[in-house]
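Weekend entry, working from home. Most of the wet-lab plans are on hold until the incubator is repaired, so I used the time to fold the two sequences that have been sitting in the queue since the last round of cloning. Logging both here for the record. First:
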Amino acid sequence: MCVMEREWDEIGVRRTGRLLDEWRGAMTGMRCRHDRLVADGLWLTGPSGFLEIVGLARHENTHSRMLGWLLTSTARHGLGCEFVERLVEHCTGEPVSVPLAVRKVAFSVWRNGREADLVVWGENFTLVFENKVDASEQPSQCDDLYKNFKCERAPLFVFLTPDGRKPCTATTRRSQRAFKTLSWPEVRAMLEGALSESRSAAEVASAADVVNNYLRTLEEQFG
């Protein structure tokens, strides 16, 4: 009986050894295949958007600056006023009947101790942005912005958030009516539409690459 047990154990050891050798060989083959794919640039991991690479994908001021660039009609993205028109239509609920003219775009505009993240002055409109990514609202923030910019030419107030929620700090009837909610996914859809319909943007390939890279960031971060 002991002899049989010993012989059976020896068979098991030999079989286990063969299986281990086969497993090691398979693992070596897979590692070689993996290393070849990596060397050829065919095994890709990590972020693909520039803002994710530099750690700014959720940085509020960076997104405000990107919006400022995209809303500057003479900037090298080639969109002209295509993107601006979609934002104005979103705020007014009406189609733009005449070509828009953007006169000035300013990041971080302070009035009476309160900051507007972005302001766009046009010939017959003014866009005032309160941009939120992860930060919460400050006390009376939207009420103050309304008071500070309500006398601008045809002011349009935009409360921009990842999910398009309403501002908590727009408490008066007038400021509540003035602020239009906007989500980052809606911004992405507007930007995609503007890019697809802009002949100039298509012709400026390098600038279109920048816009497309930003669109990828918006999709990955906000949906």
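Second, folded right after the first finished:
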Amino acid sequence: MKIASYNVNGIRAAVKKGFVEWLESVGPDVICLQEIKANEDQLDLSLFENAGYSYNYWYSAQKKGYSGVAILSKTKPDHIEFGTGIDYMDFEGRNIRADFNGVSVMSMYLPSASNMDRLEFKLKYMDDLHTYINQLKKDYPNLVICGDYNICHQAIDIHDPVRNKNVSGFLPVEREWIGKFMESGFIDSFRHFNKEPDNYTWWSYRANSRANNKGWRLDYGMVSETLESRLKRAVILSEAKHSDHCPILIELD
């Protein structure tokens, strides 16, 4: 089972940059999208269906052109869950889950924090989400939670940890949360296989950051420890350039 995840920073913009052709060439069984910035009725779904993704599910924010997540699949899921049932999360379209034969795949888009109010929102979201996931694991123990977590876990995950130590995305409280999230039963699939520095998934559009690889690793495929024996590969697909993020890919036996 090949599972990809990609913050596309606007699915319509990504399509114009060759996203569908890229998707066909990589061919994951399931792809999780974040920051789609569109409603389903604004999309030409035949583009995805013709690429082999007959089953596509979109969960948009109530605010148009903002946030939103999706899951595209080659095979029909056993079940789709839109949102978490927590209203303030679901207003922003940040969680969608698809269940496939005992493995549940979630596309998740954690908030960023551009100011103090949004930081408080993000911290509340993180705590409530962890509580939600702990409950979810009781019924769905085999979880793959993919997406943009908007957090760099360790110094190795950010190009300048010293200068960014007080910037949201690398604050001690955020790093502590993602560490505890993993300790509660999840594997950072990329770091399971790759301990090397300079592996990032997001670059600012400023100052030629991507060309100079001055990035942040914000996108994760968190895999339940129950699936550890089935983990085959996890990589960052940095050659894909349809967004300020790049996709990640996980393979399970």
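Plan for Monday: verify the second prediction. The mean pLDDT is 97.
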